[in-house]
Design goal:
The chain is mainly beta. The protein is built from no helices and 17 strands. It has a five-stranded mixed sheet, with no helix packed on it. Strands 6-7-8-9 form a four-stranded antiparallel sheet, with no helix packed on it. It has a four-stranded antiparallel sheet with strand order 10-11-12-13, with no helix packed on it. Strand 10 and strand 11 form a beta hairpin.
Amino acid sequence: AGLIKKEELPPRWGLLSYGNGGVTVVQKADWQEQAQITYVESSIARTLTTDIYRADVATGTITRLTTRKGPDGNPTPSPDGRFIAYTGYDSTDATWQDSYLYVMNADGSNPRNLTQALDRSPSSLTWDATGSGIYFSADNEGARNLYHVSLTGQLRQITQGAHMLSVADIHKSGLVVGTRTTPQDPGNIIRFDLKAPGTVTKL
């Protein structure tokens, strides 16, 4: 995998993916102050397997962090760099399998499933400001809402409603911005506070 530098910043963290054929694609540029490290997904298309790698920008050393058969992806480092949240599941012959949200130590050790009890696939992972849990989106019965799960596996639904909510960013103050679509009101940019998620302001 090649390394992509962000010219206006010194080497930091980024999330990249690359597949067969030597093609490198930027999946998510999430540069952080912590260290000169990037996380990489490597895909093996024929076996539907993806793994997460840790690449040291300074030395070029690449370390494989996930090793199971099955798709692991969406690596999202915690604010302090101690943990990596990601999604995936064990390889299966089932025609459909929901993904789970996992967290592991930054060196790949101690992976654990945080959403075993949730039969929906988490997406759009965002760590909370304290690094004690992860916000994520999940679809259910034609609606998409925001959830939070702690590092101990305590799960709670943040928003309610028959809408498609796409969260763009969550500020450390608790301000959430994104878009919300309903059958009666398509495609609005909105904001709300995590302390009062039912009070939504259209922008």
